[in-house]
Design brief:
This protein is mostly helical. It contains 6 helices and no strands. The protein is elongated.
Length: 192
């Protein structure tokens, strides 16, 4: 039976050692790859939270610019927001880009089109933050100038508080995610 091709009842001990070294080599490569993958997942989670904060900070800057522009110009709200959307620093706000690219001849009035843009092109923002951004459409153009400015200042302050809270959470979660990712990879590599 030992003479049949592919069947060895008594394998060559030297050959078995070579096979084991090759298996260990792939095992170490696999373990290293597993550690890298888990590390990448941790870093990616930390980056996603950073993008969310950045998008909310940019939204707050949009509100601040609206406050300053409304105080000095008498442009309609829609025209003013379209002008701000054309600026490079606001290009990372997906809802603003969508609103600016939509045709003004659509049947919906400004506040409803603003809310539609925010709801459909939210980006990284959570539901709580989305509601803050939606308020821009409720405020701009709905009241007299002084009331708009006061409401926008209040909204900017609320956004600032949320940004501060998220930054404090981000600091903790960034260290947690970037530490737990590699540690989880090492733990899985040891277990496997």
């Amino acid at each position: 039976i030992s003479r049949l091709p592919g069947i060895h009842l008594f394998p060559n001990p030297r050959r078995v050692g070579e096979d084991m070294n090759l298996l260990n080599c792939f095992g170490w490569w696999g373990r290293g790859f597993l550690i890298l993958c888990c590390s990448g997942i941790g870093w990616s989670a930390a980056k996603q939270n950073h993008n969310r904060i950045s998008q909310l900070e940019t939204s707050q800057k949009l509100v601040i610019d609206l406050i300053s522009q409304l105080g000095y110009t008498l442009k309609p709200a829609e025209e003013l927001i379209r002008e701000l959307a054309s600026e490079e620093r606001f290009s990372k706000l997906p809802y603003l880009n969508f609103f600016a690219s939509a045709k003004s001849e659509e049947l919906l009035p400004f506040p409803q089109r603003w809310k539609q843009a925010v709801r459909t092109h939210l980006g990284e923002l959570s539901q709580e933050e989305k509601k803050l951004v939606e308020q821009i459409g409720d405020i701009v153009g709905a009241y007299d100038l002084q009331a708009q400015l006061e409401q926008l200042r209040c909204l900017s302050h609320q956004m600032g508080q949320v940004v501060q809270r998220l930054q404090a959470q981000e600091e903790r979660s960034r260290t947690l995610c970037t530490s737990l990712g590699p540690l989880a990879g090492i733990a899985l590599a040891i277990l496997l």
